[in-house]
Design brief:
Layout: H1 3-32, E1 38-40, E2 63-67, H2 69-72, H3 78-84, E3 87-88, E4 91-92, E5 95-98, E6 109-120, E7 128-131, E8 136-139, E9 142-150, E10 157-164, H4 165-174, E11 183-187, E12 224-232, H5 237-241
Antiparallel strand pairs: 1-2, 2-12, 3-4, 5-6, 5-12, 6-7, 6-11, 7-8, 9-10
Length: 242
Amino acid sequence: MSKKSEAMALVQDVVVALIVVAIVLGSLYIYGGRWPPMVVVESESMQHDDELSYIGVIDTGDLTLVRTLDNAGAPVTWVEGRDTDYRRYDEFGDVIIYHKNGQTQTTPIIHRAIVRIEYNETPGVDGGFDVPTLDIWGETDEIEIEDFNSYHNGRRETITLVIDVKVILNNFKENGDADPHGGIITKGDHNREVDQYSLPAWTGPGAAPEGVSQKVEPVEEDWIVGVARGEIPWFGLIKLWA
């Protein structure tokens, strides 16, 4: 084969490879509805084991596809998933990607949707929350989810997950610019507590922007980037090591 023929063959191979990559990325974009179509998992907060990683569970360094709510529909919470046996990543409910308190300048969080709560201004001085899926109304103290699966010790444990309503209400109270509201309570599978009283709302450089609460508030739909779908294990480690 002449040098010219070899060069033409190389060009053809490169063009074919680029076309294949474009088709794959285009398909992911159409399915997910956003660009880039995937995110890298940067922390251990969704792991189910302290030492081992598993296919079908979100681990540090995994790549996950993000599908917008316009394409996927409303997220299914852990409580709703338990009632219908709807599972994602070896647990009930959807895993969502969201911006803490709507701050798009911060790295999104990828955690599981646990339960929806609705703000009720009637009970108590600071109001309370209704939880229709648990038949709870006007709660001002604690919301308990019995027989909840947690992995905070690196293995599955059945616990009663306690959501401290007082802490959530106080977070709103301390931030005079934030009106109390409902939304989705979220939690990392490997974390002990829910985000809404364990996760700082601002972790960027310098002081938090004016009006940002100290802790993550119940997640509103507008803050959700999308739901997690699928997994490419460990490929994201390239970015984390770079």
